Amino acid sequence: MIAGDLASSGTRQIYCNRDTAGLCGPQSGVIAYAIIVTSGGNIVGSDIFTCDSFFNNYRPTAQAICPSSVDNLPWSQGGIMLHELSHATAGTTDVAYGCNTNRNLQHNDKFRNADNYQCLALHNFRLHNC
């Protein structure tokens, strides 16, 4: 659903530096978030909002990602966006954050945890680009 951005997952907009829900304060730790609209248990729309910190703090280079162990991969803008898109298209949740924590999740939680998609993408980047 994320790769195809299927029409069945609704329509969405991605907003830069817009904080409609007031979640992006400097002490909040929020980088980006998704607001999801459902009807009958299905996602019919969703919007993604990025905070200022998304643009200031999460641009690791390949030199930062390549030597990192899988458990300590740095977050990236692409990975964070993938995390939010998994919420917006597949209705994932935040069971746990960080690749080191995700490894120990129960089987069903691994599929519904948004951060697992970010970790998978960063791990694949390491495998094919380092």
Automatic annotation (TrEMBL):
Keywords: Hydrolase, Metal-binding, Metalloprotease, Protease, Zinc. One of its GO terms (molecular function) is metalloendopeptidase activity. Its cofactor is Zn(2+). GO terms for biological process: proteolysis. It holds the Pfam family Aspzincin_M35. Residues 11-119 form the Lysine-specific metallo-endopeptidase domain. Belongs to the peptidase M35 family. This is Lysine-specific metallo-endopeptidase domain-containing protein.
